[in-house]
Amino acid sequence: MLSTGAAIASIAVMAIVTFLTRVLPFLLFDRGESPPKLVLYLGRVLPPAIIAMLVVYCLRGVSFAAPGGWVPQLLCVAVVAALHLWKHNNLLSIFGGTILYMVLVQAVFA
Amino acid sequence: MDRKALAAAFPVTVPVLMGYLAIGIAFGLMLQEIGYNFIWAFFMSLTIYAGSGQYLGVTLLSAAAGLGTVAVMTLLINFRHLVYGLSMLEKFRGMGWRKLYMIFSLTDETYALLSSAQAPVGVDPKSFYFAIALLDQSYWILGSVVGGVAGAVIPFSTEGVDFAMTALFVVIAVDQWKTYKKHLPALLGCAVTVVFLIVLGSFFGQDQMLLVSLGVIVLLLLLLRDRLEEKEGEAC
Questions:
Q1: Do A41 and B225 touch (CB under 8 A)?
Q2: Is the pTM of this model over 0.95?
Q3: ipTM of the complex as predicted
Q4: Which of B41, B30, B33, B8 lies closest to B166, judged by CA?
Q5: Residue of chain A whose alpha carbon sits nearest to that of B39
């Protein structure tokens, strides 16, 4: 575990960087001229690519050495996606998948 | 604070109230599980105020990641905010000191409400927007503190609750998949990350390879610009 000071420093960096991503458009483009086309293009195509990247990043611990290393993760991702396509309710999808995952790792593949 | 604006904003924010309480509670639980109590949850939600960013923050704190990694990962996950800001330039003009808070509090959900909600007749739109932003953050802080306290007192194991982060990203990805007409960026992001992070990451270290993945994704998207923009033109 980090020391208290180091944890505060980490949180401060998260806060500052998060604010920067929010304030940057206002600093750069709040004078009336429209942003360069390249920026608008990246703004459109990057978000889905980054979210896909983060989903894979979350699953980086998956290992095919034993069923417990991949069944809970991949099954629950499929369940979340299916629930969301079916009911389109954020809470149901997130909590349904998470509770199933907790049951799987604590009771089934423990 | 303008009470009329608060009263008008509250019903609009009820869906966010439900969502933020739930996701905030999961955040507080995860943070408690890695050894940081509700006081940490409170200050993170007060100063950072980003759902997916704070979920990632739990991972970064528990991995004792270096400040450079923390900065880059936070930048990546919040990159989409740049787009939100671009479409709020007009709306926030002339809000004076409140503009700074509006920019600070521009989360996905607040952005969604601000894009669609109309101030009722007789309510100052700028106070109305400010009230929406303020209410949303108060729900978020409340949820994360409740989660932190609950994590410390509930008797059953919360092992596996961190899957909520994966689930949140999957939900966002499904929503994007349905919204966007072209799926190449998402497929590209997935394929590049599998190759670089999973395959090469086991040799070179995953933190570095995540940055390489992002670089390759941006490069490929720039190379494919003609094709992707053309496709979009056809769809319109």
A1: yes
A2: no
A3: 0.86
A4: B30
A5: A8
